[in-house]
TrEMBL record:
Its EC number is 2.4.2.10. This is Orotate phosphoribosyltransferase. Its cofactor is Mg(2+). The gene is pyrE. It comes from Flavonifractor hominis. One of its GO terms (molecular function) is orotate phosphoribosyltransferase activity.
Amino acid sequence: MTYQEEFITFMVRSGVLTFGDFVTKSGRKTPYFINTGNYKTGAQAAKLGDYYAACIQNHLPDGVDCLFGPAYKGIPLAVSAAASLYRNYERDLPYCFNRKEVKDHGEGGSMVGYKPQDGDNVVIVEDVVTAGTAVRETIELFKHVAKVNMKALIVSVDRMERGTRDCSTLDELREDYGIAVYPIVTVREIISFLHNKEIDGKVYIDDAMKARMEAYLAEYGAR
């Protein structure tokens, strides 16, 4: 199995990738949902870091100075990805994350961990990008920290949905900020891999679910 196929299986087994009837933040009725809040064990964190690290190593084998995890969900992702990059590829990259509330005592400031420097190539580590708000906030935040190069955004799943324009939210971010975006997997890869495939004795995407997911993409998918 490729690391992408392993990752899809891992999300299903972790109860993170689920199928049924859900409503997204933007009010869209969706037949599938990705809830990264369901990761909760040390073993899951270690494996999750391995998949992010594989994606980073695959697309960005060099030229990265720092990993950044947007608070709050991005924090454990950046930390586990940094640990896995060192453990699996002997790449020791610094990481940092932001405080939601700026600290007014001690050293103060909005950043925790590595202090980004002018000229650094920064990679943002996120879970699932819906509207791209957290990423846009991150890019704005860094304008007050250092003159960095926002090199890439790594996400777990590309839902391949339209954002505020006809293209996907990830394409919007590519266009607006010139940032490279690399998902570990896309929803199309999820459909292709799981269709009529048993995982632990259960088929998660049968013909009916595939039809629902295809209809959803036909309505809300990027043009």
